[in-house]
Design a protein that fits this description.
By secondary structure, the chain is α+β, with helices and mostly antiparallel strands. The protein contains three helices and eight strands. It has helices spanning 12-17, 49-66, 97-114; strands at 2-6, 26-33, 40-47, 71-77, 79-82, 86-94, 117-123, 128-131. The strands form two sheets. The protein has a four-stranded mixed β-sheet. It has a four-stranded antiparallel β-sheet with strand order 5-3-7-8. Helix 2 (49-66) packs antiparallel against helix 3. Mean pLDDT is 86; it is low at 146-169.
Length: 169
């Protein structure tokens, strides 16, 4: 079980090696890559790193509880990731394929909803916009995501929703 945020290309071989074992006959690897939708040339990923890793570890622990014979690992890239490059990967291995598939899907779906990672899309025309995990985008770049509100402890947050366009990343 390994949860990592990295600033370099994802190491898929190491991610797989971390979950595979002789008694785990089914292995599943999910890789999410940046797409060129709507003029996007890259996505700049940022995160509250301590919170993101802690939440990733909670998600992996939940997967371990639900699929005790499975092993899961996840890596999410931070920084600028160009179109075609991998931004997130989840590996799961279990004695049988069904458990591997289910654990892998659980981890990526929970990550998309719960982990504090933000996406700033860079476009071919030089503009940038923030996008959430549902693909909702702001009309323009409002600056870095942040909050100084005592109600949320001053923790970074997604910019307030603005006009939306486009599809999920």
């Amino acid at each position: 079980m390994s949860a990592r945020l990295v600033h370099e290309p994802l190491d898929l071989a190491a991610l797989l090696a971390g979950v595979q074992a002789a008694d785990r006959g089914g292995t599943c690897l999910f890789v999410g890559s940046v797409r060129p939708d709507d003029g996007v040339v890259a996505i700049d990923y940022s995160a509250h790193e301590d919170m993101a890793v802690a939440e990733l570890e909670r998600i992996l622990a939940e997967a371990q509880n639900q699929w005790p014979e499975a092993a899961t690992s996840v890596e999410h890239r931070l920084g600028r990731v160009a179109v075609g490059e991998a931004s997130v990967a989840v590996a799961a291995a279990a004695p049988h394929r069904q458990s591997a598939f289910e654990a892998c899907r659980f981890v990526i779906e929970a990550l998309k909803v719960r982990v504090p990672v933000w996406k700033r899309e860079e476009c071919r025309d030089g503009t940038a916009r923030w996008a959430d995990n549902e693909g909702r985008r702001t009309a323009s770049d409002p600056g870095p995501p942040r909050s100084d509100s005592p109600a949320d402890g001053g923790v970074a947050a997604m910019p307030p929703p603005g006009p939306t366009e486009g599809s999920a990343r």
